[in-house]
Batch of 4 targets.
Target 1
Amino acid sequence: LSQRLPTSNPRTADRAALEWRHRGSPDQPPCLRALAAAAAAAGWLAPGFLAPGTQSTATAGPALRRQLSLTSSGDAAVSPPAAAATTPAGMQVGSAIASMSCAGLLVAAAAGVQRQRRGTSFQTAAAESGTAAEAPPKPKKVRITAFDSVRFFLIAYIVCGHFIGFAKATPFAFKAITQINVVVGAFFALSGYVAAYTTTENAEREPSAKLLSTPKPLWILQRVFGYYPLHILICLLFAPMFLYPDVVFNGWPTAIWHGVLALTMTQAWFPMHAEVWNAPTWFLSALTFATAVLPFALPVLARQTKPQLRRTFGLLFLIGLVPKLGYCYDHKAWGLLEGAMAPRAMPNLAIFNTQRFNPFYATIEVLLGAAACRLVMLDGAEGEEKAPKVSALSTALPIAGMIGVILLRATGVLQLSDMLTRALIFMPLFLSFLMSAHRASVLPKVTDPICKILSSKLLVTLGNLAFPIFIVHGPLGQLFYKKIIATKLFGGPLHTVLGPWFFYAYLAIVVVAAWVVQKTFLMNKSVGSFSKDIVGKLAAKLEARRFFVQVQGMAMPSAVGANFITPSVGKAQRSTLSV
């Protein structure tokens, strides 16, 4: 804790309290509970301090209560004897906290708990300066509802792009709507942007206390299980449809292997088989890897200044761009419109699919989104420039640019590969839009017309359906249009049996099915409770294994194999374990 909580942080007490209470919960390793018991014996804390739901400041032990006082305004104060002569009462954390000794940490934690329970303001001063400094009020976070609507427009474009070929669209419309390889990068960037917004502090170069205090396996699993249960459900419901053509064309061993890839969400690592079973869920496979990286990357990004973030952004941009340049250079693919091409027409489908599906490249785009978000969140922070003025053009111009690029490529005016268009033009424009919409949405009064439209109730409701639409549109499309399936069920693909108009009926069916899934499964409390229990058990096992490995790492070589710990640890470790 002393390494995580530098004394320069004006809210050290709050953060110490959050860390202490989380780490001391009964389902965590017993080391901190033992330390709390020792502190209680010494009089620093009452034995019930770690008990869940404690609401009274009486949990401070007698020795600690002698050092804590409440000012007339109700603020928690810490007055160690060593600093009492030179420190105004109730205004300064003493040398015990400055050194972050064990006793100092306990004082900070108890003071932070008092502050959180009483809802009062807390003031801290650096021990070496002796002057009080009031912590600036932290800007509140608001839900940026415009981002929900953005998800709907993105998924609507991708759904249409996957099946527009069955609607007998004009050549121009077909080329304009099939550029999904370009647009899908926006989903990764938006995921990183939202992750940074929810896990780092506004106007501060700090990650949130919750991000730091939550064990990384638990943090990752909580997010993965936000989409994994529905993915599993759809895979199981449509398993006969997925298996039948796989068995017919490839045999049972390959079909089972493809099922393993789909169920474990590892298919994105196999570029020629990334679209097995529910084809669009390669995105979840890539996103899962990026999610596993985020708890390690977000604290680093959170502590960077704006100049550092811009350098990080530039480095990530180049890392993502260079492989795409290599693909285009080696295969003379500079001007290809890959989304409108048949797979057999590709110069090298395996290399192209690697650019599309590989989780490493997806992680780059997720981190680009996170870095862009941090640039906005640091607006007006200490030592940083203020937020630039935003206007209607701040959001309108990037949108016009994205639409214009797609239309220019569809007409043949702009001949640039999908991969280069995505990296060089579309992604920078999309991130610029997100940053402008973010700044416009957190103003006291939202005046941006585009943000107002995107925040309308109808569009936000549709945006909430984006994920179930994404999950169900692939299986329903296979059901209606995949020849081997539709012929068995309907006598042929429905665009030939009923006509091209069925494409619009298909879109309506997808939306209705997504709404049903949303109401009956995603919003089901029993499903949520079950998922939460599974996450808790998996995280506990991973944490226990990690603790076991750490204990083994402390061990020194020993010829005695019967005893696991005591004979194999050094003298200092045995002394620590005895205590």
Target 2
Amino acid sequence: MTSVPPGLVSRRIPSQNIVSRLLCRELYGTAHRRNSLNTTRGFHTNIFPDFTLVNVEKPPCFLRKFSPDGKKFIAFSADQTSLEIYSYQGPAAAGDLLQGAGGEFLGSEETETNQRVRNVVFNRFFKLKYTVSVSPCSEQLNRECSLFTDNGRFVIVGSAAFVPDEPHAAMYCMYRNNESVSPNPRNPLEDYTLHIVDIQEGRLCDKTTFKTDKIFLSHNQGLYLYKDTLAVLSVQHQTVHIFQVDREGAFIKVREIGRNCFDNDDFLLSPVLSAASQTSLPNPAVYRAYKETTINLLKHRILVFLYKRAAVLSKQDGNPYELRNFYKFFDQVRWLKMWKMQLLDTSHLLIKYASEEVVTLRSSEPNSQPSYFVVYNIESTEVLAVYENTSQQLLDLFENFCDLFRNACLSLSTGYTSSPSNNIYANLIQQRFKQTIVSAKNGGANEARKRVLAQLPISAQSYSSSPFLDLSLFSYDDKWVSVMERPKACGEHPIRFYGRECGLLKFKIYAGVQGRNPPPQARRLVAFTFHPTDPFAISVQRTNLEYVVNFHVRHDTKV
């Protein structure tokens, strides 16, 4: 054993024994030696999901996620018309099944014991409580779309069906205002329905429909729920619909933002917006908003904000350069379209604008194209700020106040998710990512800012609050798993989790079927669903059309 050089003190690894840590907390409280993680969350470094059940048999359904309190689990039926609500039985529900099982995973050997465990373990952890028929047969639920309310009682899901070619949709349905985008084969129009389900009582409470529209339901991109305020972005009609979710689970329409800003704008403008003003034909029947030649109210406010800012800057500098720039890019800004949005709080929207080619999915590299972020006050209808996607100021705001953009754990008093603004290790990962882009060929500081800001706006409820993904507790390779709930590439080796405090290997997670070589051309993706607090996780690996479900549970094989 090599001796320690003079002047250096060898690192002392704190006790990892849970009994001594509990005794220390009992004697001194949680404030004593905070670095030793003697806190409720810190004890997850002793209790973790260290055993993998490979290729678990599940009912014919698509697994989705846990409720915020972790007591319920939702899944979509195989025909994607019903919502299945399961009651979670706790992390030790299958303890008796695993007695005598050794190693780090239940192998793929077809023994009688292994087969019995695979067949019954799902029903040990989850008991089906309700099956709620949600969507009509003509529409299918999007299995990547779900939003839980703060109290965990309701869940909002979305369904869609393609608009039939025959009979063809009327033009005034496809173009409801002069900002509506042109449909194309990559961006087909659909009929959408949002449903709200009471998961405690197992009943459908309310629904709202959007006909002949385009709303990005996948990963909640077109929906955002902040407390009881729901925002829905219609990309086709360039409108943000604002709803209130009441205590009984009903959608209450508050306003539409786009062509109008206040809810009474149509009434105030009705005397001048008459059908007779749009045609010279006698007795015109209906006023059509898509024939308007004016700039809609939201876009007008953005242009006014940019003009005022340019005028102030030109006056300060004594140089008309900023005003000339405004006039130069006036038409470019005028034809920008809303692409994504999120609620920053109940009164403020962050809206991302890009060209129509990007918004309608015709661009091969959308994040490399110019885009703009608009901060909009819903109550006062003011535009508060406009940033380019290369803005250093917006990047600083995002890095320093990342949690306010994510809104990851509004409903959980103990909820916590690692981000660059609250975790030094998450910050380090982001700085390394930026430095990689800066150093890369065709990279640079501008490109790095663009790549980081491409994360905005952030989809609602897309971050896990699991303590096992807390970078202050564990160190792991975020290439294979991360706090963001998105499918990741599946590696050939298990994912290793090391204790951040001690540097020791704590546990491994095995994704996919062990010992089986996938087809060489197959693209393997794995999606992880972690319980909010318990040592329990589900991984679903997809290889082409094959799905493999693994359960990652707590099982102490050393006892």
Target 3
Amino acid sequence: VELSIDRRPLAPASARVFRSVSPGLPPANNKNAGACGDASACECAACQAAAYIGINDWYTKPQNLKHIPSEGLFVARSADDKAAHLPVGDSTDSNGHDMQMQSSGSMAVPLPEQPVVPVPTGPIGIKVVPALQAIAVGLAIRFLIPLPAGVTMQGWTMLSIFVTTILGLVLDPLPVGAWAFIAITATLVTQTLTFAQAFSAMTNEVIWLIVVSFFFAKGFEKTGLGERIANLFVRALGKSTLGLAFGLNVAETLLAPAMPSTSARAGGIFMPIIKSLSAASGSLPNDPSRLKMGAFLTQAQFQTGIHSSSLFLTASAQNLLCLNLAYELGAEVPNQFFQWMAGAALPSIVGMVVTILLVYKLCPPGITETPEAPKDAARRLEAMGPMSRDEKIMFGTMAFAVVLWVAGPSIGISAVLAAMMGLCVLLASGVLSWRDCLTYTPAWDTLMWFAVLIGMSGQLNSLGVIKAFAGSAGALLTSLDMHWMPIFGMLHVAFFTIHYMFASQTAHVGALYSAFCTMMLTAGVPPVLAAMSLAYSINLFGSITHYASGQAAIFYGSGFMTLSEVFKIGALNGLVGFILWGVLGMPVW
């Protein structure tokens, strides 16, 4: 059987159909002649040919196709099986490419030419006005503002470049990775940093955990395991998009105490599920259709993470780190696990509910009610059949990684090493190929820009810039001779706001937690209140920017959120969370 395949860019379609390569060919050795239900079980020539169509990974999986020999159709199992029977030439793959197949005995006949839909074009390269605005602010800081006491010229130059970088990420003159590369190059041109200093964060464990988590997401997508899990969620909770959001957040909250890496939870489990749920509803990343479902689910999971990471002491790695630092300062928290949960239970639970509803209002999904979704999901699960070999390996690998994420610290295995071991299994088993990893651009793009921001943030701390600002703020507050309560509030506002200069929660803890805790204790703040409120605050600003934390980089890299949405919704939810935790948590703390 020979195929002639013609690929042309067309608008995406929800259903995908292949005309049988030999419509008149009698089904050979097919026990269910006339309507075989599964291409993987059918032995007719057309179904056997389907297994060798090397067009798209999804289409080469026989379990994703069903063949109707009597009609000469291959019907792809998709989110919408109602539109399955399309004429040849009306079907497209997931990338919007026309897939046409026609048979003529042993000769392939070229298909008739069709007009190509013109691809919109726009300006190529940098957006001049936003770039000049970002650069102008940086130059003003460097040359117009007097050098503060305690800050070196090298540190001041570093700050001006960092501010320019952040403004560029907001104004978007270039893609994030490209702007970050230009910024790090500027630090070398101005001799502010050495090459080793500029790229020092490339060895950061959190960054590589994020990169490997992206590859796990690719595995979920390629094997179909993500689609299967998504359908299970839809079957249980899929009557509304809001119900899905609540279900996903409850799942993360229950998983969090045993899996303290927020980056691993986001990249290894929940972002792949969200992508599969969205794809099943025709909501695609980096596309206007993302607003149907993907944007809302991603924002809801991203923003509620600040609460689910705070409910349990072991839900995030920095929680224990904060209490250990406080203990060294004399602010001991008795019965840490119980005290932590008692102080977090009410604001965390209320915060998750309020945040999901607020995101639902700020980023409303185009698809809200899906009463037939559970039934459709059940049918899709039945059509998918039992788990394939690759799905089983993917599931086992993720279970292996989760076990190591939970028990790893006690046996000397870090979270990133556990993830790397899991990726090795996927590569060795053939579930993922090295080409899959090389061509998965979100992982490498995130590696570039996130490493640049973490490196710059670390250098600001090393050069004494952050310490100088913290010292000035502390001296000002203590000179006011006020009651500890207003000083407590102002220090928290400063502690929260200054995170816009950090690209890591752990780095923020290392640089400022002890300093701010000391200032609070000096002002007369009760030790337990100072220690726990600052520790909770570390989680609360984890979603204010796309670089605020490891999971922020993962959610932003999914393609379901724009930068403006991240900053706008992140700032509002951060403020709401800040107030909510203060009102509901203070009486317990």
Target 4
Amino acid sequence: SRVPVYKAQRRPRHSQTLVPEVGEGQLAMDRHGIVKSEGPSHAHLHRNGLFLVALLLAGLCFLSFDLGIMAEHLEPCHEHSIARLPEDVGDRSIEPGPSACEARCKSTPGCGYFNFWPPDGGCALAPENAATIVPYYGVISGPAMCKATGDQPRNSSRKKWYAMDLWMIDGQYYDFRPLMSWHPGTKLPLMKTKGKDVSVLIRVQHLSDRPLKALQKYAVDSSLVLDETKPLEYRYSFEPDGFYMTAKDRVQKHLAKLGVKKPRQANNAILTKIGVNMLLWAGSWYRIAVSPFCAYTCLLNMCSRMVLTGQAHEAMHMNVLPQYPVVERMFSRFVIDGILCTPIDSWWKEHVVYHHPHTKSNLDPDENLKQAIPVWRLTNATPWNPMHAYPLASTAVVGSIFPYLRGLTGHIPRTLFDSFPDVRREGAIALASLILLHWLPLFVQKGKRKALLAVFLSSMLASYLTLVAFHVNHLFGAADAMRNAESETNVDWGVQQMLTTSNFYVGFGISGGLDLQIEHHLFPMLSYHIQQEVQPIIQQTAKEFGVPYHSYSSLTSGIIHHLSYMVELGSKPDDATLEIHREEV
């Protein structure tokens, strides 16, 4: 007998239709009928997605480089998007660059400042007494003697100073430029406040009065100052026996008793929270970008974004790692420039220089009095219009796409092709942040619906909740009542902060430090764990002075009260109130 030989035969054609589609983690059969396990499938990824992202990033890097003829760097005293008015010195001319516009100003009698528009090369001159400084997108402005800027005062041979190079405190001029190279808070606070009245800011940014006393040696004779700085109009007081100075004295004594020598330094728990959330954010975002959709991963990424935003807000105040300012700034810049898509220098100026010292006043940019976002009515001091009638919808939409607004409103396209590399770099960073930190799943994933859902749950929902958490702290009825009490003068600065600020309780710390805004506003120089330490002192002092201490039982309670007040602001006032608003306008 012969031993039969079996040859491999192909399976019938009809059997191929019975084999189920192999997915991720399933078993598969090879052509010899052997069962084997397959690894993760990448069928959900777009083949050219990563290549497209890399190509876009390479293009952005190229745009941010110095491109020779079309590139012109800003001088140290040039300011971007700031205009000096009135423009009544000579006629408007066309110049090749800001240096030529500056030279024209220098050779024109009576010219103190120049304004240059890169898009069309327009050059307009302003007199030496031009005190009005207005935000104006794209304009480059500066003084006539820009080239003489340095650590030494201008016109030092004649012992003269320009007001825009100095700082004003209680009507007295100071020259702090020699401090820029070794200021403990870095040179950013000095650069952003040069030429301004910092009487309130310097008092509320330092726990003791020692810095104010030490700065007296930098005082300048006011009779030798050319031009003038307009004194800040405010109604606050810092009486020694008032609420704020009493609370400040008690906090100083308490911290001295505890032996706290570095109140800005975050403790190990906060540093660990930052490190863990950075890892959670990076790991979850990678999984969102390259793995199949998972709602839990998206929500984990959302929570880490909220925590990091709160901690970056603390780092911007130098309350995390003040002994390592470069590391602290890198962290805050990554979150604020990247996750929030907001230039950190611009936000620092708005938040620290104007919002903190002048909460709920006409100087507070967070009030949206100029209607930069026309669908928001954040205070009853803003005249009502029909666009304000849908507060819940406008808050949800604007809050969700807040990081994208700069791109959607045309800011990024305008800056990407600006003639200044510094400006182009700002636009390139903003667009790269949107692609890498917000829209990456849309480029990489094949299923666009699930990719969009992933972006919504991680990026957009985090943006909305973070914005509402910020608004809960200041947008409520009692705060507006204090804001509108214009007849009250000489108000204790601390009382002003107490009446216009609110806390909320979050036991697990997802807010990243936004829950103690009363303590943060009163003492922005304290780290979060020190704010927790002095909270009972502030509560007791407020009770003694009869000052209310606003606090919600939870973030949810705060959001409900805030949205209810937004609905109230969005309701159409009666005709008499509308007429009053028109007269005020």
